[in-house]
Amino acid sequence: MTAPDRIAEFTAAVAQTFTDGSLVRLKLGGYHGEEADLKSVEARRVSLKVGDRLSFVFRYKTTDITKNVTLDEAIGFLEQGLASGYRSARLETTGFDLQFERQNDKLRLKRTEVKGREAVEASHDRTKNRPLTDMSAPWLHALGITGKDGVVRNDAQDKFRQINKMVEIFAPLIQALKAENPRIVDMGAGKGYLDFALYDHFAKGTDRSLEVIGVELRPALVEAGNALAKKSRFAGLRFEAGNILDYDASGADAVIALHACDTATDDAIFQGIKAGAGLIAVAPCCHKQIRREIEAGTSDDRLDFLLRHGTFMEKQAEMVTDGLRALLLEASGYRTKVFEFVSDAHTPKNNLIVAQKGNAGSREAVLDRIADVKAMFGIKKHYLEGLLGL
Ligand SMILES: C[S@@+](CC[C@H](N)C(=O)[O-])C[C@H]1O[C@@H](n2cnc3c(N)ncnc32)[C@H](O)[C@@H]1O
Description:
alpha/beta; Rossmann fold; elongated; binds S-adenosylmethionine
């Protein structure tokens, strides 16, 4: 086979897999052309209003440039590029990888079969609307979201969807904060998925500087988080070891908590209220405290048709816990909203309580409602009430 045949074989595979939708990614490397700062080139298939295109991202030392081209234009570019400018190219598809190498006059092509790689949905809008777009970010790989190939791992799809959704929801809320350089404290940060995502998005997306602090009980996670923040050069992101309740959150503009266990969510809300944070947002986890209260207390007989079934009791405990949290936030001067941040197909713990400071209405009226709800469900005390001294 002659040298141009190898290039023709490679471009034919690109054309075939682009057309049948099995193209996952195309990468070009070993650039030795005239553009001194060009590091690498990557392309994916995208669906635009004008039709399907190959979206090339040219990565330069300090910036990325995206060009969406037709298949014919892409083939023309590849024919030229593989003959001179680039020494290597890799086509990744759902069924095989095709590696092209050029060393002086020698051209090599190696095909490797692959199994289990999923097709990439070619929706440009989805990518454009998703806040986290830089799939090569080292933190995504270090936290196990992307594989070595920069593609979201199958077992991390839900997590990736959740953090994107969170960033999407938090972005306008954080923008709305009056603080010039907002300080966000994430209580029960775990490995810090949300913190890295928020910082990544805001550090790139705006010229406001941002401080994100993850508070976490487990020192090993804190150490790992700080090392990764340093490696990622996220100067405003740090993790601190400690208990939510003992943390000094004064100066926080936003206090958030994603799946902090049971009453740790209340500890986070309390800290937000105590700090006078403009935004408090929590996605609660388990709801054991109120379930125990309902089980031990005497609820309105009319609720018996629900509460005698374990599954409904569980759901009621969840709703009552979070409904009371929303009311307690209102009694503390916050406007609240509770909504599902992702479908329950991705996580059953999908409710988000968002509270923004101001215009909360009459405290007395809210306290009366809280007393009514507690009496109805036979609840002596919501843990958060105790923290708030109510
Ligand atoms: C279910 S994980 C969620 C982690 C992270 N927010 C996320 O969504 O990926 C809950 C985390 O909260 C931490 N945690 C629980 N109670 C805490 C407390 N009182 N103080 C600090 N961290 C706590 C746990 O160690 C754990 O890492």
